[in-house]
Every structure is written in C-alpha cells, then in structure tokens.
Amino acid sequence: MTALYNKLYEEPAYGLPEAAVYLKVPSTTLRYWLTGFSKQAPIIEPAECGPVRLSFLNLLECHVLAGMRKIYNLKLPKVRSALRKVSKDFPQPHPLISEVFLTDRKDLFIKRMGQIVNVSRRQDQLNLDFYWMHLERVETDPKGLFRFFPFVVEPRSSEPKTIEINPMVGFGKPIISGTGISTAIIASRFNARESITELAEEYGCTPPQIEEAIRWERALPLPVARSLGVRFERHLDHFGPGTPDETWLPKVGSNNWILLTADKRIRYNFLERRALQENSVREFVFTSGNMSGQEMAAALELGLASMCRFRRKFEPPFVASISRTGEVRLRWPKV
User: Fold this and answer.
1) Please, what are the domains in the chain?
2) Model confidence over 66-114: pLDDT tens digits?
3) C-alpha–C-alpha distance, residues 161 and 138, integer Å
4) What is the pTM of this model?
C-alpha cells in the first residue's frame, strides 16, 4: 500500500545520538552523512542543522542508506554518486523515501538501484538482499501511515517486527508494535525487578513482547560500546531470564568481566553483596532505574573514560554509579 505524506514526518524529532542508537550506526558515521563534516555536501539534508536534528523521514533515509552501504563492495563515494543520480531522476526532497515508500514501485526501484550502482567485474556484482531486508522494515498501515520496525540487535531477516517507531504514536519513541506501550517504561519496571509475567498481564501483552521490549532497551547501548572499541558479553547470551544474581555473579568475577547494570539494588541485598565481594566483581550501575536504553547509551559514551580510570584506581570488589551526564562515583565500599 502507498504511504500518505504527513507534515509530522518533517518535524525535527530526533537528536543525532538518539538516531544513531536507533539505527545501529556509529554517531560519527551518521554525523558525516548529515553534515559532510563541512568538507563535502551532506548526503542527507537534516531537518535542523544547529544542532543536527533528524525528522522521521530523515530517520528512514538513514535507515535506507545503512542498507545501501552494506551492499557488497558498495563504498560511500559510489553511494554518493548513486544518490545524485537518484535525485536527478526523481527531483523530490526525499527521493529515497518518495520512490520507495510513497509509491508502489519498490521492486522497480530495487532494479534501478542495481543499474545505477552497477559494476563491471563479475566478482563485484551487487547482492541487493541486504538492502531489500532494510526496506522491508518499513511498512504502511491500513490508513496509509508509516510504521518503522528497527532491528533490535543486528540486521538480519529473522528479527521480529515487535518494536515500532511511529511519529503518530508515543511521540515517535520506540513502542511495542500495535500497543503504544513505551519500551523504556517496560525496561525500567523490569529493572525494578517486576517480573515479565506480571508486566505481560498488566499491559495485556504476551511475555515474548515484553521480552523483546527489554531486549531492545538493553541493546541500545551496544552500538555505542562497539563504536568505542569496548568488548562485551550480553547477559542473556549466558543466562536465562530471572537467573538469581548470586548464580551469575560468580561467572562475572571468574572471567574478570566488568558488570554494567541498571539494577542499583544489588549492593543493598546481603546475599548479592556477598556474591560481589566473594567473587571480586567490579560493578558500574546506572544511577536511575528509569533511564531509557538511549539515555544509558549516552551516559556510557560520556562516562567511559572515567570508568577506565576507576578500574585502574580501585581494586575489586567495588560498585560505582554512572549518572545521566556520565559522572562516575564510588558507591561501595565507602572510603
């Protein structure tokens, strides 16, 4: 179905760090696309430039561009050249969006893109499957309004379409698709130790929907960590939901991992505090259990240097807090 244009799609709703987290794109890369670092013309014109803010259509453009840049052997200069050709052929403010999503010509556009960025050598022939996978994350509802389903962890076809970004619902922030329920609220209540079953019953959702909302919020800091060169292990890759802290904390200590959590109550529970102490765990905790994944990502980026200094300065075990502004303070033991 053809999507309908809405003026709300052009409003500067998203800051650059926020958009980078949603799109799983490094913030420096996204800034280059939108500003050219004052050395070249931007690839995509943002809704506002001082500071840079993106509209919903900008968000979709960057999502499409993220798919284009992963096409086999398609480097950024070729992408820039392709976009110039697209803009010339389709003289509209948002040619990528207009041609793909505001018309019913997605198949034709994919074919044209293959011709525009065509290369001569056989080993360089384009694989457009990855690009197509990105385009399929944007749908239109029966009223002709956009629905954007971002990848939760990484771009792959098996990713469910459970999380939605829609400027008409929830002020354009991530929600559980079809419900209007904020993923940030779900995650903050889960961090306050409400169970998945209780949350599912209260909000009228299925447990998998609640789990996906939590997975989305927990995944938001990961692109920031990758862009900063931080190696990490995800909790759910090693332990099931609801695993007692005194069960998984020993593995954190034995592997000399640094624990990053939003559960600020660990250090107040006797058994868990003893597990921290006995297993020499270094723990950094976000100070507010109500922080969204986006806020955690920003705090991690701001506070990483201080966290590294803490690790060198203090012997384990210890618990340090990270504020929204990236300030790091020792919380336990008291010195």
Assistant:
1) 1-136 (no CATH), 149-219 (1.10.10.10), 221-332 (no CATH)
2) 877 665 445 667 666 666 766 676 666 776 676 555 444 444 454 555 5
3) 10
4) 0.70
